[in-house]
Amino acid sequence: MKGPLFYSKILLFGEYGIIKDSKGLSIPYNFYNGALKMATTPTDKTISSNQSLKRYATYLGTISADLVVFDLKTLNEDIEAGMYFDSSIPQGYGVGSSGALVAALYDKYAQDKITVLENLTREKLFKLKSIFSEMESFFHGKSSGLDPLNSYLSIPILINSKDNIEATGIPSQKSDGKGAVFLIDSGIVGETAPMVHIFMENMKQEGFRNMIKNQFVKHTDACVDDFLKGDMKSLFKNTKQLSKVVLNHFKPMIPQQFHDLWKKGLDTNDYYLKLCGSGGGGYILGFAEDFEKAKQALHGHKLEVVYNF
User: Fold this and answer.
1) Which of 61, 65, 97, 279 is the most buried (most CB within 10 A)?
2) What are the φ/ψ torsions at residue 29 (nearest 5 degrees)?
């Protein structure tokens, strides 16, 4: 047995903001993927994955049947037979490692599942998101369900608000374009739960709440609109503002050794950095109008291009 591949994702805009109803834009990232497989010769990796699946299957059995019903009998039999999740998606990097696993299990074991081939109305997308949110909460404590949704459908998802999401098209890439969206490897594994906890604690302060509403959400929404319209001039202006807000108010989410690099980008305009996922480690997203220039400025760091324009 070898299941279909499910890809990683990148939330280009909307981290933290979507908790507070900002817009968001999530795109599939095909560089990493995962699939369910049967272990022929067990290794430490396959055994560990298999044990995790066993614990996860128990949790799936507790999800309300009103939301989704799984063929738990077949799932548990497959786990007993040595099934594991073979994934190249780095964990704790903000590119949706648990999302791909959730998508793979829903695809294989959910009954009456909503498929990619049918007419994906907003209602169906919302139902899928609700199911995935419940399924992924096992890993993060509280999940929006967006990562698995992106992985399952493998199409860009536009988040208008918590209850309003739609599949969207993004401007096609220019392979010869000078500009790029890229990932920087921080070399540190991030953990989602503690970062979200810091954010929620900060949200108890009125000043922080006002900053989120009047600055963070405003710039995030503008970035999403600019990107979808292909208005790069405005996009860079708004990304710079967003990068500045994050540096000033989300310091704990930015690994210490990147504080100066973050500021350097804002001072020189060679690149702008933003969080990829919850931060605290993993990947950092970069935006540059001239990628060659950004590469020189970020010499010594591992960069991966996600999108060219």
Assistant:
1) 279
2) -125, 100
Q: Measure the CA–CA gap between 156 and 125, rounded to whole angstroms.
A: 12
d(CA 268, CA 291): 14
Q: What is the mean pLDDT of each run of 10 residues along the chain (309 residues)?
A: 88 90 92 95 95 97 97 98 96 89 97 88 91 92 86 93 88 87 93 88 96 96 96 96 97 94 98 94 96 96 93
pTM confidence score: 0.89
Q: Are 295 and 179 contacting, i.e. CB atoms less than 8 angstroms apart?
A: no
Yes or no: say if 25 and 63 are a contact pair by the CB < 8 Å rule. no
Distance CA 4, CA 19 (A): 31
